Every structure is written in structure tokens, then in C-alpha cells.
From TrEMBL:
Annotated GO MF terms: DNA-binding transcription factor activity
Residue span of region Disordered: 1-20, 150-182
Record-given protein name: HTH marR-type domain-containing protein
Superkingdom of source: Bacteria
Bias type Basic and acidic residues, positions: 171-182
PANTHER family per record: CONSERVED PROTEIN, HTH-TYPE TRANSCRIPTIONAL REGULATOR RV0880
Residues in HTH marR-type domain copies: 18-150
UniProt-listed InterPro entries: HTH-type_Bedaq_tolerance (IPR052526), HTH_MarR-typ (IPR000835), WH-like_DNA-bd_sf (IPR036388), WH_DNA-bd_sf (IPR036390)
Bias (Pro residues): 1-11
């Protein structure tokens, strides 16, 4: 007598397919970002300007070309954005000691205060949402953080001439840690 074919193997409930996880994660991020951006009390601070301030807080001072590389945007776009940040009074420019023709861009006190305020606001929005979750869901979200952080580690391009070992360890530097990230 012929044996029936075994059913096709399905992933176990504990094993997830990367494509499914990627699609769901992308969808959640696309819904979270407008929620966070829509709450800002700073109309001049667009998402790209926030990202530039965050990059300067984490890696500055930088040349405009290094900022462009870190943000993965065109040099001309970055140059215009830096002019806008300067006009808003959020950054400082100073000559690069290695090349007096170039400038180094860094956050000034107003820019740092603004970035911290925005981070407190967005962290507060997320804190409220997370507090509404059941305790077991909060725990699962907390346990997922190392994996989510690992997704973005090493994705920022290095400045010209920098070695891979020159990166700051996670959790160090201004703006890192429990204050929320832009």
C-alpha cells in the first residue's frame, strides 16, 4: 500500500521568515514616524534637519561632505541644509584646522537644546504608547531592542580616512541612551 506524501514543511510558530518580519517592521516604522513628527512644536525643524542635527550631535564636528555621506544625501542638498540650520541659529561653523579652506560644522548650544527638546517630546509620545501595552508586550518590545539596534549598527558610512575601529562604542557620546533618538 502506498504511503501518503508528508505535508509540506511549514516554519514553526517560533521561527519567522525575514521577508514577513521586514514587511511588518517597515509598515510599523512608516506609521510611527508621522506620529512622532506630527507632534513637534518646532515647525522649522523638518525630519531631514532633525536627522542632520542628530548626526552632528553623534559624530560632529563634521565637514559638510562628511555630513552628506553620513546622511546619504547629495553634497549640494547638504550644503543648502547647513545654510538653513545656520540661518536658524542651530549650528556653528569654524575653519577646519587640517584644511583652512574647509569648515567644520557642529551643534551650538541652541541646536543642542532644540535636539534634546525634540527627543524628550518624541520619547514622551512613545512612552505614552508603550505604557498602554500589556506588561508582557512591553517586555517583548524591550527584548527586541538589541536586535533592532543591530539592524542599524555599521550602516553609517565612515568619513574619509577614518578606520572602522574609530567609531564610538554604542551608548557613548552626546544624545545617546535613554533620552530617545531623533
Amino acid at each position: 500500500m502506498k504511503q501518503p506524501d508528508a505535508p509540506p514543511e511549514r516554519p514553526s510558530p517560533s521561527r519567522t521568515e525575514p521577508a514577513e518580519v521586514a514587511g511588518r517592521l517597515r509598515a510599523v516604522i512608516q506609521q510611527l514616524l508621522p506620529l512622532l513628527r506630527g507632534r513637534s512644536r518646532h515647525p522649522d525643524l523638518t525630519p531631514s534637519r532633525t536627522a542632520a542635527l542628530a548626526a552632528l550631535a553623534a559624530h560632529g564636528p563634521l565637514r559638510i561632505s562628511e555630513l552628506a555621506a553620513r546622511m546619504n544625501i547629495a553634497l549640494s542638498t547638504t550644503s543648502r541644509m547647513v545654510d538653513l540650520l545656520d540661518n536658524c541659529g542651530w549650528i556653528a561653523r569654524r575653519p577646519d584646522p587640517a584644511d583652512q579652506r574647509a569648515s567644520l560644522i557642529s551643534l551650538n548650544d541652541d541646536g543642542l537644546a532644540l535636539l534634546r527638546a525634540v527627543r524628550r517630546e518624541t520619547t514622551g509620545v512613545l512612552r505614552e504608547r508603550i505604557a498602554r501595552l500589556a506588561p508582557d508586550r512591553q517586555r517583548l518590545l524591550h527584548e527586541a531592542l538589541p536586535a533592532l539596534e543591530e539592524l542599524v549598527e555599521g550602516e553609517q558610512p565612515l568619513p574619509e580616512g577614518a578606520s572602522p575601529n574609530s567609531r564610538r562604542p554604542r551608548g557613548t557620546g552626546e544624545g545617546r541612551g535613554g533620552d530617545g533618538r531623533a
